[in-house]
Design a protein that fits this description.
Length: about 550
Amino acid sequence: MTRLARDILIDILRDEGVTHIFGNPGSTEMPLMDALVDAPDLTYVLGLQEATALGMADGWALAARRTGFVNLHAAGGLGNAMGVLVASKASGTPLVITAGQQDTRHLMSDPWLSGDLVAIAAPLTKWAHELRRPEDLGPALRRAFALAATPPTGPVFLSLPMDLLDMPVSGPVPPKSAVPVAGASPDAAALAEALARHDPERVAVLMGDDLPADAAEGLVALAEAGGFRVMGSQVGSRTAFPGRNPWWDGVLKADFAVIRERLKACEAVLVVGGRAFIAYPYRDVRPMPDGCRFYHVTETAASVGREYPADLALVGDIGKTLTATARALAPHADAAARAGRAAARAAARAAHRAGIAASIDAAGQVRPLCPDAAVLAVLRAMPENALIANDSAATFGAVNDLIEAAPGRYFFARGGVLGCSMPASVGAAIAHDGPVFAFAGDGGAMYSPQALWSAARYRQHVLFIVFNNRRYDVLQRVARDLGCKNALAGRFVGMDVDDPAIDFQALARSMGVPACRADDPEAIGAAIATALDRRGPTLIEIAIR
């Protein structure tokens, strides 16, 4: 059987479970766009800029828990998407990224739109390759999907010369490649014995920033079997532990001094996932207290010893390993004592949360609202089935402890790249059965505002929450903390976004998104209630100080 390479591409996408293609087309993508004319089962999701297209694919992949597929335009389009690709690599998002390359028959002359796409993508992908023969399309695409989904998951890149997609290929479509299935570590019982030797009140379990949501069942089982508190990273890309579980102990701020203080009473720390100690800016402080035992459960041997020498390290499927450890640990635990401690922790956490909320409410009497009060008003109005895509520093204050994220329902731009949450929320909304809240600052909202148009075009139920203080506030805070000349002089160079002020409501409406401004908790709640009843997106601007 002889078929065009582009038709084989479509068949493989279907077989790999792809339902949406995110992209921004150009002339080098015409063969793919022609193939999609006869493939109505594959939805092409248009982004008006490549960073938006890749951001939507990233959000879709994280929410759907499947590998996303995105098609970019030539070297310039891939360049436009590089910022978001930094975030995708940092979060380990499984993506197959493709870009059209110029016709191979004149690549030697460096034609317009050509470039070394592989060299551009290679530093930020698990594998980057350019096709040279149409016969290689099938095997390369199958390999790309397998690599993207194999732990450590992450983006993979293929450069597709436009003429190759229109060439005939003989033979059957290559079969799907199985993704390696890891089992539980054989050392789970040894970990259980090690943990059982410690006072459970002095054991902390830290979630790595790359921990997948499907590890949640095993993580909960371990916490409940041992009576261990569980903490996450403030800048972790996702969460794998329910925020309402009594063993949840909140997030660790990205400051080694603060982390060390939180862990000072620990005699053992168990890190689950690739990496848990993340800080900015630099401090000459070790986050681990002296004499504390360090245990590590990870899917990849490469992460062992990266942060600290491990007293015991286990490599295997994280969820299965934790479940096996929980089973082995159960006979060592005093069930009655554990239940009493769980009840006490639940009561203490409820009192702690109530105290934080009361303090924020008192501060919220002043206008403009402080960031904590603005975020808390949004959290109170959110329904149970909401998903959050966040890249706003407004959430970094005391209110951070009030975010009760569920596994698979909270994503943060782990790479520190602004402009990720807005497009990611659109992609996530396509995969999520419920509303999606995009948290963005006024600065970050200007990195990928094209996401507003895509949300309107595809009628996605996204609530874009823009916390607006007309400045790069997180940068000014860093300057103050470091004692920089900007802060000492009271003149922050290049950190204000106030002249002219950005009219976010006009910007949203220009792209078909209804918008409003809400400046107090009651108005915020009412605006969110209206948006939840609306089919499609809404932008809500909240002035903060």
